[in-house]
Amino acid sequence: MENAETPYRAFSRSAAAHPARAFVMAPPAAGLSWAPKGYSMTYAEAEHKITGLRCKFLDAGYGRGSRIGLLLENRPTFLLHWLALNSIGASIVPLNGEMRPEELQHQIRKSRAETVIALESYTSLLGQSVPDEIPVFGEDTALSRAVSLRAPGLGLPEDEAALLFTSGSSGKPKACILSNLYFSMVADWYVTLPGVAKIECPVAVTPLPFYHMNALACTAGGMITVGGTIVTLDRFHPSSWWRIIAECRATLVHALGVIPAILLQLPEGPDDLSHVANAIFSPGVDAIHKIAFESRFGLPVLEGWSMTETGGAAVTDTVGLVGTLGPRCIGRPRVAVDWRIVDDHGREVAVGEVGELVVRAQGADLRRGFFSGYLGDPVATEEAWKGGWFHTGDIIRADADGLFYFIDRNKSIVRRSGENISALEVEAALVADPAVRSAAVTAVADAMRGEEVFAFVVPAGLADTDGFATDLLSRLAKRLTYHKLPGFLALVDSLPFGGTQKLLRGQIKADAEAALMEGKAIDLRREKAAQRTKAGSWAP
User: Fold this and answer.
1) Which of 235, 268, 322, 497 has CA 20 to 30 A from 434's CA?
2) How far is CA 468 from CA 458, 473, 515, in A?
3) Residue 314 near residue 370, CB atoms below 8 Å
4) Tens of pLDDT, residues 377-405
């Protein structure tokens, strides 16, 4: 058990094998505000720093069972703190600095983080979000003694390595407990991707944040496992994208469906084919954009599907599939996973029919490699695992060859630019406004971002249409992160309810699409973009 794989043990093994290889870096073209000339840190240098941090945490009494919030952006110091904490059996809570105080306060309280380590630039935000009893430290400051002194852990497979938040269908984001085994299984899948597999010195570029499993478990965890180089960007930079990819000699590029769409809008230039990458992993790319992107940039687009809850235990991808795939094809599973596509009554549907995808691990332990549960919410955890299957909430179709095609979501979720947004969370923020009597939120199609947030609002009194909407958006921006704000809004006299007084979600979605077609919705996308208070916003 003591030799079970953990992120730290994987790093330690790679550091011993490749001490002079770059562990994490970014080229000058990345234009990082804190490293304008770029930077590079070898495995040996990182190991030295991790050892120092490890001693620092141990001296302060942290160990197995400790949980530390990290607000360190996509900087090397984030990875160093994570691996140092993982080496003593402690867990991290990656935090998003673009959250509004109320959102961040929810995550800190829900996670039960005992300490937060943050960049100095977030002092004001944390002052409004962190309870007085939770100490906040800078990345280089000394730690005070932990409230509950703990011994260093052994790094067991079931030990918690990180706590990530995901927007589910029940409103406020839920905290997913992710174990060492979870990270190990994601890495095992990841190292088979083109750009990683059979490449001596793989280099992976990601513009995605470490508070998502894509960047933390896939890019960081995978590169650590094979001794590759992690190229961390502060965000997606369209104008310098290909120059960044070329300068760092990336072999694998990470993106979201919206990124290829944006790149295709740029004028052709000499940097378009300057890269040496083998593939771009970009879930959610429009089928037409995929064909145009591969033709212009000479880079195969890999599709895939996973969830924070399923990790590498139930993941699909299009690796090895040749030819033109059907629209929204997400490939097939390449791991030991059982799956079914079922109707509303849990009955398996016929091949080619649509239904909800339910999954589980093969063997005696049906939950092996999945998330360990929702922190503090055993009821929601068991509901997700109803009947011994994990219910994804995603509507899928499988063809006779076993290929999956993504159809829709069964949950009250808006998938915008790779971000899962809870419709219920946005609705709660809307009805908390004194000018709103009731509200309903749904997803509508967006050619660039996949989906956009659409809100129906019943005003509490008389409302001047445009002025009411923009003023409401401004107030809402103080409660919700930029990407959660409505891009479209329609004022209505009432909302559709069923006999049990539940919102008719299907009718709301149909009404939203009709309102857009008939020009009856207020387009707030320009005002929404203006609410981006930080130049480094993650959401395109």
Assistant:
1) 497
2) 11, 9, 18
3) yes
4) 999 999 999 999 999 999 899 999 999 99
CATH of the domain at 383: 2.30.38.10
Q: Are residues 349 and 294 in the same domain?
A: no
Cα distance from N-terminal residue to C-terminal residue, the chain: 43
Its pTM stands at: 0.86
Q: How many residues does the chain have?
A: 540
Residues 329 and 456 in one domain: no
* Single-letter residue type at 255: A
Among 246-260, 290-304, 487-501, the range scoring the smallest mean pLDDT is 487-501
Instruction: Scan for tokens 């944006």, then name that residue.
Output: 262
Q: Which domain holds residue 447?
A: 414-530
- Structurally, the chain folds into a number of domains equal to 3
**pLDDT tens digits, one per residue of 74-125:** 999 999 999 999 999 999 999 999 898 999 999 999 999 999 999 999 999 9
| Distance set, CA 253 to CA 324, 334, 418 (Å) | 21, 20, 16
Q: What is the model's pLDDT at position 482?
A: 86
231 in a structural domain: yes
What CA–CA distance (Å, rounded) separates 204 from 46? 18
For residue 313, is it within any domain?
Answer: no
